């Protein structure tokens, strides 16, 4: 069920990526401007993911910004400090990570995804990294999980599991979507 949902969602994301113009991160930038100085984790986009880097660069002028680092299968992510011109190396899954690791603990986590719904559901890549990570961060204190995606990635009837961590809101290239609790 999840495999079929992922396949359809990847196709929608690829079409949105190919049609996207500049300014994909404008709404994300506006949102983050209201949270200047708060530690943020973004992500280094791969394949057809929407690009958060312009918003991350703006946020880095006011406070710490990190990117996820995969330690190993079944483990939560850690976040290494990132700046727009920092040296990067290739990490697991071909995602770039800072060459010099300096860990931060984010209070806002910008989450990549394959599909989302308006109740905070998220379909990821299937490794459970963000679910484990958000569960751990939320156990330590308040954290805001923001799904960042193209509007075309919205879906209904996502095949969710009890271990899936909900998003607090979703930001697309055009909107901030407040999620309705399940």
Written overview of the protein:
25% of the residues lie in helices and 21% in strands. It is built from 4 helices and 12 strands, in the order ααβαββββββββαβββ. Helix 3 (53-60) links the parallel strand 1 and strand 2 (65-69). It is an alpha/beta fold. Helix 2 packs parallel to helix 3 (53-60). It has a single domain (2-105, 120-162), classed as Rossmann fold. The strands form 3 sheets. The protein has an 8-stranded mixed beta sheet with strand order 6-3-2-1-7-10-11-12, sandwiched between helices. It has a two-stranded antiparallel sheet with strand order 4-5. Strands 8-9 form a two-stranded antiparallel ribbon.
Per the CATH scheme, the topology name is Rossmann fold
Note the quaternary state here: single chain
N- and C-termini, Cα separation: 20 Å
Can you give the helix content as a percent range? Answer: 25-40%
What does the largest sheet look like? 8 strands, mixed
CATH superfamily annotation: NagB/RpiA/CoA transferase-like
Shape: globular
Gyration radius from CA atoms, angstroms: 15 Å
H/E element sequence: HHEHEEEEEEEEHEEE
Strand order of the largest sheet: 6-3-2-1-7-10-11-12
| Number of β-strand runs | 12
Which CATH class applies here?
Alpha Beta
Q: Uncertain runs with pLDDT below 50, 5 residues or more?
A: none
Number of helices: 4
Chain-averaged pLDDT: 93
Number of domains: 1
């Amino acid at each position: 069920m999840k495999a079929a949902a992922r396949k359809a969602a990847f196709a929608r994301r690829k079409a949105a990526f190919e049609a996207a113009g500049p300014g994909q991160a404008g709404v994300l930038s506006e949102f983050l401007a209201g949270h200047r100085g708060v530690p943020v984790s973004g992500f280094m986009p791969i394949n057809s993911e929407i690009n958060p880097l312009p918003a991350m660069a703006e946020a880095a002028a006011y406070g710490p910004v990190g990117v996820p680092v995969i330690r190993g299968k079944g483990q939560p992510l850690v976040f290494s400090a990132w700046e727009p011109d920092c040296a990067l190396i290739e990490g697991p899954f071909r995602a770039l990570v800072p060459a010099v690791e300096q860990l931060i603990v984010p209070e806002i986590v910008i989450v990549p995804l394959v599909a989302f719904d308006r109740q905070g559901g998220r379909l990821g890549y299937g490794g459970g990294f963000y679910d484990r990570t958000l569960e751990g961060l939320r156990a330590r204190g308040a954290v805001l999980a923001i799904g960042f995606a193209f509007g075309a990635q919205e879906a209904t009837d996502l095949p969710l599991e009890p271990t899936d961590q909900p998003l607090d809101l979703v930001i697309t290239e055009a909107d901030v979507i407040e999620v309705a609790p399940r």
